[in-house]
Amino acid sequence: MSFAQILAPLTGSSRDKPVLVGAFTAAKLFNAHVVGLFIRPDPVEAMPFYGEGMSSAVVQEIMDVSKQAANDASRTARASLSATAGECGASLVSSPECGDAVTASFREVEGTFADQVALVARLSDLVVFGALGENDRPGLGEAFEATLLETGRPVLLVSQTPAPNFSDKIAVAWNGSTASAHAVSAALPFLKKASEVVVLVVKRGNNDPIPTDDIQSYLRVHGIKADAKLVQGGARAVADALLTAASEGAAGLLVAGGFGHNRLRELFVTGTTRRVVARASIPCFLVH
Q1: Radius of gyration of the chain (CA)
Q2: Of the candidates 115, 166, 140, which has an alpha carbon nearest to the alpha carbon of residue 6?
Q3: Under 8 Å CB-to-CB from 47, ≥6 apart: which residues?
Q4: pTM, whole model, 2 decimals?
């Protein structure tokens, strides 16, 4: 079990660097291929927002400016991929290939950012996003949501700094749900590489903590020894308690399935999950 193809959606901005560092750091563990995906916006789709009655000259000027901006962003994204690949010792190739070393390729498509990322993500083993914020470019949050909720692919959310270390300690958020089980199963390639694995269970009030015997047994048959840690939730949200425990425990990655909630989409509607992942100080491996 491994990750062979890792997708890194690129925007042609400074936020591409941590995404690529995270993608290549993961790729090194598996000699995987990293696809740097740049989505060129279709300027025609933006025209209805400018209203009717514009002259053809104005329309053409708007489209020319949009095309130039896309060209600049594409060159920046390609240069960032090339530079980061060089720093990480990866070879650039024209198309994805299987080998005994880390490789990378640049792919450019046209369309809506969220739609195209989700489309390519369906045939990727892992999709890497940077930390999400309220002022991100249009479509980035939607792409993250669509990838996580609609493609069934695992998402690796990386923080801005420092560079991640996925072969160190990994924390697993466990609440006994199907989503948590799927997350653990999908994260097995990382868990097998980790030097230490700890299963985190949040206790709320007087409720009995969720047992960890089954998850520890499951990991054990996969050759993974995992310790269990009980986290006192107190008045905090479960997600906040998990992130704090993982960070204070010096984990290099937190594996979670929907942060313990049954309907992750509801959290995106209310913005809770988006705020949590934006504040995460360590990388998060998420599966819906």
Answers
A1: 20
A2: 166
A3: 59, 62, 63
A4: 0.88
CA 5 remoteness from chain centre: 14
Residue 265 pLDDT greater than 80, yes or no: no
Query: Would you tell me the crossing angle of helices 213-221 and 178-186 to the nearest 10 degrees?
Result: 20
What is the pLDDT averaged over residues 134-148? 80
**pLDDT for residue 192:** 97
Q: Please state, as a whole number, how many other Cβ atoms lie within 10 Å of the Cβ of residue 34.
A: 29
Provide the β-strand partners of residue 37.
9, 107
Give the number of other CB atoms < 10 A from CB of residue 2.
12
25 φ/ψ angles, rounded to the nearest 5 degrees = -60, -40
Closest to 36 (Cα-Cα) out of 87, 89, 96, 88: 96
Question: Would you give the DSSP letter of residue 118?
Answer: H
> Bigger pLDDT: 133 or 183?
183
Q: Is there a contact between 113 and 138 (Cβ–Cβ < 8 Å)?
A: yes
Cα→Cα distances 281→48, 136, 183, 187, 203, Å: 40, 18, 20, 19, 22
Domains assigned to the chain: 5-158 (3.40.50.620), 169-286 (3.40.50.620)
Which stretch of DSSP H or E encloses residue 186? helix 178-186
- Between helices 272-279 and 238-248, what is the axis angle to 10°? 10
Query: Is residue 59 packed enough to be buried (19+ CB in 10 Å), middle (13-18) or exposed (0-12)?
Result: middle
Q: How far apart are CA 277 and CA 282, in angstroms?
A: 10
Q: Specify the higher pLDDT residue, 1 or 262.
A: 1
Strand partners, 34: 6, 104
| Each residue's pLDDT tens digit, 10-21 | 999 998 999 999
**What's the DSSP call for residue 164?**
-
